[in-house]
Specification:
The structure is a homodimer of 459-residue chains.
Chain A: H1 2-11, H2 13-24, H3 36-52, E1 56-60, E2 67-72, E3 81-87, E4 107-111, E5 114-118, H4 126-143, E6 149-155, H5 165-171, H6 173-176, E7 180-183, E8 195-200, E9 202-211, E10 217-218, H7 219-222, H8 229-239, H9 261-269, H10 274-278, H11 294-300, E11 303-312, E12 321-322, E13 325-334, H12 340-353, E14 360-369, E15 372-373, H13 379-391, E16 397-401, H14 407-415, E17 418-421, E18 437-439, H15 440-458
Parallel strand pairs in A: 3-6, 3-7, 7-17, 8-16
Antiparallel strand pairs in A: 1-2, 2-6, 4-5, 5-18, 8-15, 9-13, 9-14, 10-12, 11-13
Amino acid sequence: MLAKVLSRLDDNLETALSRLFELLRYKSISTDPAFKDECRKTADWLVKDLQSIGFEASRRDTPGHPMVVGHHAGARADAPHILFYGHYDVQPFDPLDLWEDDPFDPKVKERGRRKVISARGSSDDKGQLMTFIEALRAYKAETGSLPVRVTVLLEGEEESGSPSLQPFLQAHRQELKADYALVCDTAMWDRRTPSIAVGLRGLVGEEVIIKAANRDLHSGHYGGVAQNPVHILSRILADLHDENGHITIEGFYDGVEETPRQVLESWQKLGMTAESFLNPVGLSIPAGEKDRSLLELIWARPTAEVNGISGGYEGDGFKTVIAAQARAKVSFRLVHKQNPQKIREAFRAFVRKRLPADCTVEFAEHGASPAIQLPFDSALISAAKEALSEEWENPPALIGMGGSIPIVGDFQDKLGMESLLVGFALSDDCIHSPNEKYDLDSFHKGQRSWARILAALAK
Amino acid sequence: MLAKVLSRLDDNLETALSRLFELLRYKSISTDPAFKDECRKTADWLVKDLQSIGFEASRRDTPGHPMVVGHHAGARADAPHILFYGHYDVQPFDPLDLWEDDPFDPKVKERGRRKVISARGSSDDKGQLMTFIEALRAYKAETGSLPVRVTVLLEGEEESGSPSLQPFLQAHRQELKADYALVCDTAMWDRRTPSIAVGLRGLVGEEVIIKAANRDLHSGHYGGVAQNPVHILSRILADLHDENGHITIEGFYDGVEETPRQVLESWQKLGMTAESFLNPVGLSIPAGEKDRSLLELIWARPTAEVNGISGGYEGDGFKTVIAAQARAKVSFRLVHKQNPQKIREAFRAFVRKRLPADCTVEFAEHGASPAIQLPFDSALISAAKEALSEEWENPPALIGMGGSIPIVGDFQDKLGMESLLVGFALSDDCIHSPNEKYDLDSFHKGQRSWARILAALAK
């Protein structure tokens, strides 16, 4: 039966692509309120698509962007019940002038010997979530049903901190509880080696606004006498790291554990070097903590990064003002048992301590999630390992993750479910950047991988 | 004769206002190329207005925005020849939402017991330059001519570093050379006390762009490993000042002289306090060098100020990127014999020294002018002192200036002319800020002041 499903996926790649293109054309940018309606339309499209595979599916409105929830009983009552999670929202596209093509007019493009799907969201996460849905569609077409019981949960706020997700999980605990959660929002180790992610960094997002004078001042009249909020903000941000790359916020490293030596050694065997990791983005020398290996830095160490800064005159030419305020968006990646709320408070205390008289500060929260550590081995992981080894040239690598997928913690804490994180993105997909793409191979073999994983779970 | 001219100015205030309003409606923002055509139209309006007073006037195109030049022989060949300078370009208006009224729809508004003209450029410098032109118009109407020989030079690039001015002065040396230069682009000491400015800080404008990765990166995937240009820029800007407010750029203070004690004492007598200077803008404690008095800081000490900073995601919500680049606009106010070109080079060396491997820096010039020190006493200043003392409640204060008027140096160096800097702006005019205004009293008594000064010079 699996062979027939796989062969159907091969035969139907073109129609699967045209469905994905429909989905990619929606500008479902969740962080910008201007695109609220587009997010709703995207959810409606997904509801219809799930219904066409026999799901009882509906759009579930929230105070933010809607969820899509679908249920399918599957062919056998004794098969496990799995919950699949993906997100249909995408990152903003700016700056537009760096895109080679319209970010919302998807195309298949030749890139050397590879074919890639170019569009915002092609990799993160519309292309990925459709690999799973296409695998379901092929099962349904070949067998009239699905090999396992499936609940699908598709979110529209992942790129903006998932504010509605926890309340939604809480309110629909019974409906969403399954045996396992499958998440498709991660990357392969390389083009030949799939991955299963077992460690995920958490995230705290903060916005800080420093205010001084009650209006912009002429820097000739007031320069040298009035507080300049850009100077103050610069000093605060400069203070975040010491000369060894360590973060200087008091108590920041509380809850950070040392990674076991055998794990560090297994990472070393993956053969990643600073050059191989950084050269593709035009860099070569690791920044950050000087006494840690590269994979440890991105998988098992916390960070403090300024994601945006603005203040004063930013247009063409020059304007000799002292700005009334300056602002920065700062995010912290957390590991192990670091407490997001404590990190937020410690950061705010750090800023306040450095604030001169005459100045005020305001803060805004932008999401918080703790880090997650999944088991290195389990029945779920064994099944996935076996299935992925059959599809790909190399067996899967058990990796850490630099980015955050907050829902995995919620699945663990709120619904008592173990998660399996398998995804087919590649490190050169430019997610969150101009010219995002998803390899056609990722899209195709991703579908086949899920078909194999579903077969393994149904055994 | 002077009495008749003064009384005509009083009688014609309403028509003078309506002429000023016409001028204020032009959006002559010189720093933004989008307004190039508006600048040309403004120049044409001024040409026509000068012609209506009997000037031989014309628009003189430059590689940037045009100059307006007009000549009038005056009534007597033995009277001095004066060159009047003003500028018709204005600062950008952003942020628009902080303006109470449309910045280009001038109005007279009641503010307490004062009447003010509200518009971008009302004070800086359209309202000011029209005080002089209205004085000329009244003389012409009363006497059929002007009491002195007058050349008018109106510039359209003062707010963007005056790139065309030096070449223009060089090319039209003979045409523009006069006995004295009169400049109306400065402020009163207070509402009862006019001023004559004798010290002007110079200005160096620099833009610095720090670049790291070849694209924006996902801060989850690359955070802690990739160089973050916002961090690097913050550290560089934070390093510009030490804990005592001294600027740390090597050689920065070369050419800075100590202000004579008697001058410092005369400034002290003006009674300015940190509170009286800073409270109106919501501040109370002087920033900058800790060991200097307030007036010394703004009149006789150099500064380094960041006028704008930007990098990464600045929109609503949050985007977890590490920016590919970050940029800042930085200006230095210079005093005494500081060399602008050396300051620029020293700043660039300062930045390059702090640039990590893997990063590059680009710089852009935004104007350079040395500081200027005019005599504390001369025939020109005596005449102006006498005239201003008759018009105003208090005699004029001889002051320093925090801002730059580069042309005064050019008049001195290139045309061998002494300048007289008299203006009627007030410290609460919000020039370079939202809600710029010019007091109706400044506009009216400013015209009367110029009439008196012209009479004194014609003696």
